[in-house]
């Protein structure tokens, strides 16, 4: 199957992001998803966004999934436990090692690629589900990544996206790493206007407790679960 080659882009900020996450992932056995529910496929054991993703993934049945910015692999492992064949793309080499180790402990296999999401070569028209859970606020050219994710998606693919919004200023705790939040009804939401909305929510000023090594701070989020409309449906 042909692959989607990355377009020209300036990634001068990527080394700082890689160094930041390599350091933090190495310093903590688990940086994300430290609760016992981390690999549960039961929607009621998760927040609303993740519950919707799991329920939709289970309803659609096993297929092929792409996890962009996979972190330590919790989303990937849950999808693999649902029977999906998962490709995980992650910038941090330390995180990639952890994905492999955690997946092995859970008895699932995940294909792991240590690449920036901006330049990962993706097979065209392949994926039934694409996750971008917490990666797009580390991407300057969001529209470029979204276009490439769409080109890699099957005709009625499901996309799940969560990222920082500008509704709350980026807290000083994040000055160490480049962050590019999006406006509400900004680039990301406009990209999905022709898709069927399964779930959409704004979280404003939510207290953040999931970062070890950070003091108390707050974020705002945009959270979307969108289904691509088949071409014939778009023309109606």
List keywords for this structure.
alpha/beta; 7-stranded mixed β-sheet; two-stranded antiparallel ribbon; 7 helices; globular
Summarize this structure briefly:
With 236 residues, the chain is of the alpha/beta class. It is built from seven helices and nine strands, in the order βααβαβαβββαβαββα.
Roughly what percent helix? Answer: 25-40%
**H and E string:** EHHEHEHEEEHEHEEH
How do the strands of the widest beta sheet line up side by side? 4-3-2-6-7-9-8
Q: Estimate the strand proportion.
A: 25-35%
What is the number of helices?
7
* Biggest sheet details: 7 strands, mixed
Structural class: alpha/beta
- The average pLDDT value, as a whole number, equals 92
| Residue windows where pLDDT falls under 50 for at least 5 positions | none
Termini Cα gap: 29 Å
Shape: globular
* Strands, total number: 9
Q: C-alpha Rg, in Å? A: 17 Å
Describe this structure in words.
By secondary structure, this protein is α/β, with parallel strands linked by helices. It is 28% helix and 26% strand. It has 7 helices and 9 strands, in the order E-H-H-E-H-E-H-E-E-E-H-E-H-E-E-H. The chain has a 7-stranded mixed beta sheet. A two-stranded antiparallel sheet has the order 1-5. Helix 3 (74-81) links the parallel strand 2 and strand 3 (85-90).
Secondary-structure blueprint of this entry?
Blueprint lengths: L2 E2 L9 H14 L20 H13 L3 E5 L5 H8 L3 E6 L2 H13 L5 E4 L7 E2 L3 E7 L8 H10 L1 E12 L22 H5 L4 E13 L8 E11 L3 H4 L2
Parallel strand pairs: 2-3, 2-6, 3-4, 6-7
Antiparallel strand pairs: 1-5, 7-9, 8-9
